[in-house]
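Data card: per-record layout.
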Amino acid sequence: MNLSMQEFIKFRNFICQRTGILFDEKKIYFVEKRIKKRLQETDCTDMIDYFRFLRFSDPNGVEFQKLINLLTTNETYFFREFDQLSCFAEYCLDEVKKQKPDFGLRTINIWCAACSSGEEAYTLAIILKEMLLAEEPDWKCKIIATDIDENILQKAERGVYDERSVKHVPQEYFDKYLTSTTSGFRVKSGLRDLVQFENLNFMNRPAMRKMRGFDFVFCRNVLIYFEDKARKEVVDHLFNALNPGGFIFLGHAESIGRITTKFRLRRLGKALTYQKPTE
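The structure for this 279-residue chain is written out next.
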């Protein structure tokens, strides 16, 4: 029972409509393999029967969520794309911090979008600990880490990683924030307290509208998987989620210059970032 190109296009368009993620035709066998896994867990007889089930017999999206859990990409590790992290730590954080006392606020809120298994969120927590909280512990910092994949969020909340995930953690930080266990390397509780994990689909418009008041948004290596209309919609949401003067970080292969002119492109250190104007 193989997935025909016609059937693939039906699934692809349906998935794109619900999530914004667009699979090109080269991904037909990748999608087919994941659908077959779900077929084994349902009473559906073939691909089209399963497609009808998703469309008409899954009102709460439970089965669709299980399929999406299998289809999402979760490639990440601690301190990935280090130049951007240095830009955040050495330039942007201080700039945003200096804006805060003018409003009587001492809070830093970060949205780690499409956080996958959590390495990026915990990396940002380490940076906040080292660059801000170590000297000024009265600052209130919070990282909201979201992903569409429920299974990967469970791994993120456990905070246990293999050697590959932690190989780029500087030894000083490794000793302070990670502990070795029989199942891997566990993030210590003091770091975990800064991060809150939540399930979020970028095409869930009411949920996206609730994402507000962030000083930084990290949405790296995500937009490349979206079709054009969905990409523009997500970028508009990200803009609205930021406080004036806030920054957004994208992946090295991503740009929003052709999507919107709302942001100000800045080169700080060795990295590019986008800033929401203050006026």
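Known properties of this structure: The chain is about 45% helix and 20% strand. The first helix runs from residue 5 to 19.

See the next section for split statistics.
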